[in-house]
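Can anyone check this?
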Amino acid sequence: MKKYVFFNEDPNHFVFERMRAGKYDITADDINSFIDGYKETDITDFLICLNASMCWYPSRRTDNAIDKYRLWLSSGKITDERENTVTWGAKMNSDLYAAGLDYRAMWIERLREIGIRPWISIRMNDIHGSAKKGDFLNSELVEAHPEYRRTPYREPVSNYDCALDYMREDVRSYYLAVIEESLSRYDADGIELDFMREAYCLCVGREYEGIAVMTDFMRSAHSLIMAAGEKRGKRIKTAVRLPADPELAMRLGFDAFTWADEGLVDVITVSPRWSSADNNMPIDIWKRIFEKKGVLILAGLEILLEPYPRRPRKYLSNTLESARGSCCAYLSMGADGIYLFNYMDTLVHESEKGDCLANRGMDEFLRSAGSPSLLEKSDRRHIVTYCDVSAPGAARIRQLPAKVSESGYSLLRIPTGNIPKDARVTLVLGFTGENKSAIPAAYANAMSCRYIGKVPYALPMYDDMEYHALEIANNGNLPPVTVAEIYSRGGSGTVSWAEIQIAQNK
């Protein structure tokens, strides 16, 4: 039985990607054929994001990128649009609307024609540009009110400090206006309130008292959504995107428990922020909590992937096999569906990114992302990653790097989903450090693993580690979650990469 697949299209990608490919004149055929590219995939619901810090459609309620571009152009702030990707993209958006091509409205119509449910998505606290005063991306609210930041009592030390504080009534009113207008302008079947752009919506130190404020905000938003549905003669569904763990969400002010009890949400997507896909989110716990409340639980996947917050960053991307692995594991854990973030189309392929999903297999992936039976029978990789969101007092799970020695064990939890009895199952460990004599060893699910030997790296692995493979004996009864106890023979070492590879015997 196929599962839901929600697909998020960000506010600028469609125009910016075509600009990157040298296509500056977008036609109605281009707009419709873009959506046609998702026909006959597993995508069931398509979310059209309308804003970042400000709206990227010609809003009449708030400032927006189209009007801002025209103002900057007339005032001489822009002399050559092509010198700046953002303002050139704003020009292309402006030209489209001036030509009467509201491409989001056109997408909604086309999506219905091909059998995909259209949603709109609102980023509830986007911080792109907010750390730099005068950045084109900033809304007037951000520019005019630095005191509305979540750290108004000190200078910001990170981009997250520049997020807006929902304890401020003006901030809440701004986003309610965006919600109300977007529902009036676009005839969507649902609206997503994306709190992962950004999850830091409350003044530091006021997260606990902010829980009630955020819940009241959700009640106000729900009233607007229900009123819009009544005007259109249908029920408009509400989705939210939240941090990966229920405790983490609550500690940041998001009381999803009350929201569900009061019928304020229909869909909860649990998700990383951006740094990496999180392959160990407790989807099974989310399901146990919400399964009797009529709320769908989706596993949110990010296109980027890394095992821990390594510096300097290399910005590795999922491959076909690793993306399949994430989907298979989460559907096996009980997720009602998969949510794809930053899995958008690519017109300009970058050879230096090698075997990433954008260069190989995206179409094949989108045709299987919601199909457990296809995923289970496919070659896949289950890579240990981490949670990239933190909250005061909440546990932060990072399994790597892990120190190992002949007498020192480290444990890794690796969800895989169901494993066919004839599949080859391999644990691959990546070592960093100077000790080249250390040979990894492991037990998987209380069974000893057979050492195979060194293996070459394969993207999205790092190219500066030494990789070793160990066989996990497949007796046909392997559990959908493997716990590996890793250690070493011949000295101590540091494991900085770990994955389980599942290969079908063909």
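Reply from J.R.: I decoded it. DSSP finds 14 helices and 18 strands in the chain.
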